């Protein structure tokens, strides 16, 4: 087990540092202090060849100018907040609108654009890094000073364990996730349309024309959103279902998870033999098939395009502050927000 650190670049006059965590099997994860961004995850295919399985860049400017949240921690609130406002304890809070009238992923200066403090630790069977950030009261319009910690741990079972913690001095909203785009083909040799996704989920949230949840849970049976027995991504995104067409001929929807910490999310690629198992204590996962990616930039040496990666964003339900029937994403003063997601990489 080892950790290698270095300088990644500069942002707003301050240094951005990178940290590469490597286990005894040769698997590694590299992340940076800008946005807790995961820039690379190198894992073996069925032939033992190590390749990168996430989308990312090698310089700060690309993340700032081009990145659709590649690999970043999203906060204070993942997903969209309708009309960029909410009421809490009798007060109305106005947030910046950065997607039409929506407040998206914490706004234009969300956690993905912040520099985090980092400290590393090494144990016999795992290595890790803890990022910390203090989001001051009023940042992006949110109430309360929020102290956030995010920990990435790599162990010898080829698992990346992600812990999220937060405390506040005033009731506020918190719903954190990681926005990594996975592509198990290795070094982005092809798109993710032939990847197979399996979800333990019977319900998906319906979206309106602004991509905001209507509040209606749809039964996935006999729809392109039924991944319970495994389905290739292409079989879903090629559908004429109105919800598929709504988000640009793809998936960008929250799925309610039936189980937790029991292989509830599985992604596999037959050609490389790679398999990713995700377990979480969150109630939902937002599946995004990168249907909004365009060809206006390159990802390292690969031309960006639709369906080049898939995001599996474990989180609370989006826009829950406007839906009393959802579990709220309200963190009360004095309480602790705490959640864990585990990513296990293996081969078939």
UniProtKB/TrEMBL annotation:
UniProt keyword Transit peptide present: no
Species assigned in the record: Metabacillus malikii
Catalytic activity: alpha-D-glucose = beta-D-glucose
CDD domains for this protein: galactose_mutarotase_like
A Gene Ontology molecular function term of the record: aldose 1-epimerase activity
Isomerase in keyword set: yes
Gene3D superfamilies (UniProt xref): 2.70.98.10
Listed pathway(s): Carbohydrate metabolism; hexose metabolism
UniProt keywords, alphabetically: Carbohydrate metabolism, Isomerase
Stated family: Belongs to the aldose epimerase family.
Enzyme Commission number(s): 5.1.3.3
Protein known as: Aldose 1-epimerase
NCBIfam families the record matches: PRK11055.1
Cited InterPro entries: Ald1_epimerase_CS, Aldose_1-epimerase, Aldose_1/G6P_1-epimerase, Gal_mutarotase_sf_dom, Galactose_mutarotase-like, GH-type_carb-bd
């Amino acid at each position: 087990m080892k950790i290698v650190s270095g300088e990644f670049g500069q942002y707003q006059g301050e240094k951005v540092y990178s940290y590469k965590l490597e286990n005894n099997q040769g698997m590694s994860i590299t992340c940076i202090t800008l946005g807790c961004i995961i820039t690379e995850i190198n894992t073996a295919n069925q032939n033992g060849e190590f390749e990168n399985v996430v989308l990312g860049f090698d310089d700060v400017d690309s993340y700032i100018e081009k990145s659709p949240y590649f690999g970043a921690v999203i906060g204070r609130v993942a997903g969209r907040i309708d009309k960029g406002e909410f009421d809490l304890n009798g007060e109305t809070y106005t947030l910046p609108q950065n997607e039409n009238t929506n407040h998206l992923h914490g706004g234009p200066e969300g956690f993905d654009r912040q520099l985090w403090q980092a400290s590393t630790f090494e144990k016999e069977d795992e290595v890790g890094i803890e990022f910390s950030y203090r989001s001051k009261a009023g940042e992006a319009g949110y109430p309360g000073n929020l102290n956030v910690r995010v920990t990435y741990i790599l162990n010898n079972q080829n698992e990346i364990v992600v812990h999220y913690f937060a405390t506040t001095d005033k009731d506020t909203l918190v719903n954190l996730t990681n926005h990594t785009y996975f592509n198990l083909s290795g070094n982005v040799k092809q798109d993710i349309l032939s990847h197979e996704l399996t979800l333990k989920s019977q319900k998906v949230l319906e979206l309106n024309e602004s991509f905001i949840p209507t509040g209606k849970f749809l039964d996935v049976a006999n729809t392109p959103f039924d991944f319970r027995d495994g389905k290739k991504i292409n079989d879903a995104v090629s559908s004429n279902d109105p919800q598929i067409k709504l988000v640009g001929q793809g998936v960008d929807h929250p799925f309610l998870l039936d189980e937790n910490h029991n292989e509830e999310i599985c992604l596999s690629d037959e050609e490389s033999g790679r398999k990713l198992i995700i377990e979480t204590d969150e109630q939902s996962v937002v599946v995004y098939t990168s249907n909004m990616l365009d060809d206006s930039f390159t990802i390292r040496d690969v031309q960006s395009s639709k369906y080049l990666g898939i995001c599996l964003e474990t989180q609370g339900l989006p826009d829950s502050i406007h839906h009393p029937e959802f579990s709220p994403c309200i963190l009360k003063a004095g309480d602790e927000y705490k959640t864990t997601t585990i990513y296990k990489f293996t081969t078939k």
